[in-house]
């Protein structure tokens, strides 16, 4: 019988998995604390599970919420029957707004007769002002242009293809986009990508929960720079004529997404030998060419060599 688990290059188990020898082969099983990313081939791709809920600085859940660890990261759920609307200090609705409790928090809407003058379309009902009344009989009636659609604190332009989103702000329909707020909405094909940001110019970026909150100054600043710089970069490529705009879906903790790539090859001490280069593990701690083979330098393939002995005869 051959014990594939006794030799790392005879099995394809992850270095974070246990190799279990069987009569008909072997079995790979991710170690405790590691997640199996490929259940179809168990134990071949294992990554360490980070529980963001164990440390407050790894999640931004409210103190009245429960942090639930998930495979992708974490999610926050309000602890029932917590109702932010019952306590004025637990919500930031304007005194002239109606607070409505929801499963995941609360929403604010200005009372009838009050106008929402808030600057953040994602947070309506925070600044409500009374509408000016009086002398209506002498004032000229205001006729709203058929091209304008009232939406929160603004008016959507129908000639630009804008729609009112959530009754709060104007934007394009799903699967549409535009380069600037004054352009027309056009059909777009969205391509999601993940990008790791390590610096802002010469300043090294250090993650904080402010980067995960769209209303924070850090989030707004870094997203604005990213969209402008990425757009300028793409426009200088062959894809430039087809590029429309960039949207940022979210910013997450680098410990969740930016894990180091799993080294390729089979382990040998603190190294990983590359089988495609013909390397073998020497003395359990060094990768090199097998006996009878050499190579020109690191990263080159090992090749058989023939030794030729020369004898030198010196006469006196």
From TrEMBL:
Superkingdom of the organism of origin: Eukaryota
Molecular function terms, GO-annotated: calcium ion binding
Keyword DNA repair set for record: no
Gene3D superfamilies tied to this protein: Laminin
Sorted UniProt keywords: Calcium, Disulfide bond, EGF-like domain, Glycoprotein, Repeat, Signal
PANTHER family from the UniProt entry: EGF-LIKE DOMAIN-CONTAINING PROTEIN, FIBRILLIN-RELATED
Identification of the protein by name: EGF-like domain-containing protein
Organism from which the protein derives: Gongylonema pulchrum
């Amino acid at each position: 019988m051959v014990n594939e688990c006794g030799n790392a290059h005879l099995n394809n188990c992850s270095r974070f998995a246990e190799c279990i020898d069987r009569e008909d082969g072997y079995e790979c099983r991710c170690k405790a604390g590691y997640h199996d990313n490929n259940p179809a081939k168990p134990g071949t791709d294992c990554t360490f599970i980070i529980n963001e809920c164990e440390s407050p600085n790894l999640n931004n859940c409210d103190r009245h919420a429960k942090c639930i660890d998930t495979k992708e990261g974490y999610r926050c759920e309000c602890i029932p029957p917590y109702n932010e609307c019952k306590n004025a200090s637990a919500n930031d609705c304007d005194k002239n707004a109606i607070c409505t409790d929801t499963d995941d928090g609360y929403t604010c809407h200005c009372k009838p007769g009050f106008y929402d003058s808030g600057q953040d379309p994602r947070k309506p009902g925070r600044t409500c002002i009374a509408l000016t009344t009086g002398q209506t009989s002498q004032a000229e009636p205001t006729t709203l242009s058929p091209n304008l659609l009232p939406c929160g604190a603004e008016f959507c332009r129908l000639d630009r293809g804008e729609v009112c989103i959530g009754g709060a702000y104007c934007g394009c329909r799903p699967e549409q986009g535009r380069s600037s707020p004054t352009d027309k909405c056009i059909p777009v094909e969205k391509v999601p990508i993940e990008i790791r940001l390590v610096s802002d110019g010469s300043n090294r970026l250090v993650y904080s929960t402010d980067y995960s909150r769209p209303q924070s100054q850090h989030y707004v600043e870094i997203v604005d720079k990213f969209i402008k710089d990425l757009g300028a970069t793409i426009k200088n490529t062959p894809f430039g004529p087809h590029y429309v705009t960039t949207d940022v879906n979210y910013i997450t903790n680098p410990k969740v997404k930016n894990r180091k790539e799993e080294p390729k090859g089979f382990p040998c001490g603190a190294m990983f030998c590359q089988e495609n280069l013909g390397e073998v593990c020497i003395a359990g701690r060094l990768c090199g060419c097998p006996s009878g083979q050499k190579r020109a330098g690191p990263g080159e393939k090992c090749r058989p060599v023939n030794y030729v002995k020369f004898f030198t005869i010196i006469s006196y």
